[in-house]
Amino acid sequence: MTFWRAALALLALVTLTIAPARAQAPHIAAKLVAESAAPAPGGTTAIALTMAPEKGWHGYWLNGGDAGFGLQVEWNAPEGVTVTPFRYPVPEALVLFGMMNHVYEHPYALLADVRVDKSVAPGTDLTLTGIANWLACTDKVCVPEKAVISVALKAGDGQIAAAERTRFDAWRARLPQPLDRAGAWERQGDTVRFGVPLPADAALDAPHLFLETPNVVDYPAAQSFSRNGDWIIVETKAKGDAAGPVQGLLKLSDGRGLTVRFEPEVVRLAGKPIATAASGIDMTLFWTALGGAILGGLILNLMPCVFPILSLKALSLARSGGDARTAKVEAVAYTAGAVLVCLALGGLLLGLRAAGEQVGWAFQLQHPISVLLLLLLALAITLNLAGTYELPSFGRGQALTQKGGAAGGFWTGALAAFVATPCSGPLLGAALGATLVLPGWVALPIFGGLGFGLALPFLAIGFLPALRKRLPKPGPWMEKFRKWMAVPMGLTTLGLAWLLWRQADDLGWKMALQAVVFGFLALQALGNYQKGRHGGWPLVLLAVAAIYMNGSNAVLLADRPTSTSSPVSAGHIFSPTALAKARASGKPVFVYFTADWCLSCKANEAGAINREAVRDAFKAKGVVTLVGDWTNGDPVITRTLAEHGRNSVPLYLWYAPGAAQAEILPQILTPGLLTGKVGG
């Protein structure tokens, strides 16, 4: 393995040296910008080299790890101008084929200072140029890239525009901060130990130690973290023969980090272990998340898109006469269907994230085509419940939700889990967020727990005779109840139509209207045929025309980018820059992440956030409100959710003035909770 790591690194360097110039655009776009275009003689100004990788590509930290290297620049600086080395933001650890890489898989910026000698005359052209070389990689290929970078500067008064200061402040916030004291490091056989002086109250959620100095540690080896008083002790596998002081970067929580200079000294003994993703499975986190997923799935049964299906299946069991064996078979099959669908959705989510996609739970609702398909399904269920038509998979007698046996139970459970995707209940945020830090094979059971919780009521009916005895006796009222269940499913259909309009503007509204109107006509024609009525051919022809029109529009919908939904209530649009600016103002900051398809989000907005008492209290205390709309997906919001241990909405953050990090508020808000944060 050591040979292959060295060979890959050498190949990348040789290729960078001999590679001919390429006409194609780089996979990482680089742009040089200055905080002030008119630096004052005798002063400094900051410059940033912004790096924007294509999806699936990544760049490297100054020590790239086993098989990469950082950016190199040959400057052509005017006389009287000097440029300091670039400072890098906190990187991410990426293991590919057993090799550890220190990378950036999202846009990032390197910062440096430009110093202008006091002898430079005002008005002098100080345009700065350079040739930058870097390595761009995917999980399969690496490409050396080169670009001429340039920024126009002229000696002046050093004034900085407010927008540029805000932008650079956001980049500076992602730089690691220097630790005010030195750490210690020592070798003990095949182990190398580090001590970091860090107060006990410092947040350390997912730590990782990156070393700038080479030939000290085996990069892909597991790192164990423990706390001994006000010291963090890190132990890992040694590699190399470096001696003397070592420079490193300790990654903390929320993407922050500390640069540490380690002196060769005796390191304290290890203390209380700190759980990390690489140090094994946090079983407490797993069992807590699994319990939250089961309870969250149970609550989903009360959502308008799930309750009708559950109710009808229970009624079909009542119609069967309460036979114990039949009840158990159907209950187990129903549970299997719900669990397998949730496992499939969870597996797809984990697979997409492993492939570099920035996605979270309910990702399928972030594209109009998926919403259109769900809209058609909800419409079909609504009209079936209303008695408009019957299908072998849904109708009376042969209805999927009413026929007995394992097949009927399985497909009904699968359907219930699938139509639950537009719904979002409490407790699921933290539970599903745990899947971000657990290994995939451990995270999958949590998704299965969601399906198990969804199936629990019917499972209980199947295995508890006392509950079956409480089911009402069969009678004509069952048909009326079935039709009443069309009401919540109809509301779900209208909600999906509204969501489609929000996502795709006028085209989405047109598609939603066509789907509802012509879908109704097609299913009405089918119902007429089933009931032996004639004269339904005009409806069939209209339905065929509708399918053609919807198919054409669906192609347009797939090709067109989704619109950006505006915030749902008063507040500024969330961005890392806006958050940094709001926190710098010294005022309380309330950030909430929402989506139009999230029922819990809408309930909290109507019942708490948008209440007059809350708005008045926030206004009186100067609270800055930022809204992150995740309706159509947003990589920045997805990363922010992940940084706070979530992969779904809602998420509510409260930043008190001067606080080092955010307080995560409960997923169920009340006006009293929000006004209480500001003493209202």
Which tags fit this structure?
single chain; 680 residues; alpha+beta; Immunoglobulin-like; nine-stranded mixed sheet; five-stranded mixed sheet; 24 strands
Give the arrangement of secondary structure elements:
Layout: H1 2-18, E1 28-34, E2 44-53, E3 59-65, E4 72-76, E5 81-83, E6 92-96, E7 99-104, E8 108-116, E9 128-137, E10 142-151, H2 162-173, E11 177-178, E12 183-188, E13 191-197, E14 208-211, E15 224-228, E16 231-237, E17 246-251, E18 257-264, E19 272-274, H3 283-300, H4 307-319, H5 324-354, H6 368-385, H7 405-419, H8 428-433, H9 440-463, H10 465-469, H11 477-484, H12 486-530, H13 537-559, E20 572-573, H14 576-584, E21 589-594, H15 599-609, H16 612-621, E22 624-629, H17 635-643, E23 651-655, E24 663-664, H18 671-677
Parallel strand pairs: 11-18, 12-18, 20-22, 21-22
Antiparallel strand pairs: 1-2, 2-8, 3-7, 4-9, 5-8, 6-7, 9-10, 12-13, 13-16, 14-17, 15-16, 15-19, 17-18, 21-23, 23-24
Question: Briefly, what is this?
Answer:
The chain is α+β, with helices and mostly antiparallel strands and 680 residues long.
